[in-house]
Task: inverse folding
């Protein structure tokens, strides 16, 4: 599909109600229609969750501040980045004692981050940078319900790793408490952002999702502990992606993600979309309830 047609279809999709919107976006990103009635692929099941899964179980998973507390409840030995401030007006930061390096994020949406250094002095510039961050884009635009429950606020937390360069991000795909795949992102928020995948035994998986391959790397020393922590944090769910950092041998929570890539990530080869989908056993009672609703319309 050429870029001009793709952009036109995406603009059209965002004018449609949510169900046809998600279907058209799936077509644009995956090159085929999604089977919402009987999803089989990993990407189809993410879309099914977006459209139909409203369980209380997911209620905290897109609230970045709340997820820190819940993750520590599930696995008390996990570290979480220290929070220095939360609020809606960044002018309050002039009265906050901040470390040499910190990160500013919105609590209720993804894809926005500002790396800061030391005390805040230019409030106008910070307001310009964060303009629109308090909007509800993930819920209103993409239908990702759990984001609608997160408190709409900003927060500052400690920056992990080397100043100005985010550490490697280990994203564990956990199914019924069992990690099956690890996605390793390096160079996030930089032009050299790359990605590699490994199985639960740290064997490389020849999977490409949207980004160039990163270099193969040795198994982290704390990998067994990371597996255990990811499994514990993901244990209440039929599927959850649990993002971790490993800094000087200590394991930190990044976040948990119920809607990875909003179901738009393109798996190459497609056979791994099938394999990952086979690990995810959707809640049968929810599928039956949804199917009855469809028949009664």
Result:
């Amino acid at each position: 599909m050429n870029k001009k047609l793709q952009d036109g279809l995406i603009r059209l999709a965002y004018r449609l109600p949510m169900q046809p919107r998600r279907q058209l976006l799936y077509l644009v990103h995956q090159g085929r229609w999604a089977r919402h009635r009987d999803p089989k692929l990993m990407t189809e099941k993410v879309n099914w969750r977006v459209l139909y899964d409203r369980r209380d179980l997911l209620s905290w998973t897109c609230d970045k501040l709340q997820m820190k507390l819940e993750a520590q409840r599930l696995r008390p030995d996990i570290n979480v980045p220290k929070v220095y401030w939360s609020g809606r007006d960044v002018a309050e930061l002039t009265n906050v004692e901040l470390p040499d390096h910190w990160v500013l994020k919105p609590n209720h949406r993804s894809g926005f981050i500002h790396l800061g250094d030391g005390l805040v002095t230019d409030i106008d510039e910070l307001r310009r940078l964060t303009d629109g961050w308090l909007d509800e884009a993930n819920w209103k635009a993409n239908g990702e319900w759990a984001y609608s429950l997160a408190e709409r606020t900003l927060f500052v937390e400690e920056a992990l790793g080397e100043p100005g360069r985010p550490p490697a991000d280990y994203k564990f795909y956990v199914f019924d408490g069992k990690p099956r795949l690890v996605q390793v992102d390096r160079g996030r928020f930089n032009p050299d952002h790359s990605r590699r995948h490994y199985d639960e035994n740290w064997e490389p998986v020849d999977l490409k999702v949207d980004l160039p391959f990163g270099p193969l790397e040795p198994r982290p020393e704390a990998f067994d502990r990371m597996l255990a922590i990811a499994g514990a944090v993901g244990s209440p769910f039929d599927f959850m992606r649990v993002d971790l950092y490993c800094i000087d041998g200590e394991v930190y929570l990044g976040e948990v993600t119920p809607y990875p890539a909003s179901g738009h990530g393109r798996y190459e080869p497609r056979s791994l979309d099938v394999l990952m989908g086979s690990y995810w056993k959707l809640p049968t009672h929810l599928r039956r309830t949804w199917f009855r609703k469809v028949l009664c319309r």
Remarks:
- Confidence is low (pLDDT under 50) at residues 290-297.
- Residues 57-62+162-297 form a domain with the D-amino Acid Aminotransferase; Chain A, domain 1 fold (CATH 3.30.470).
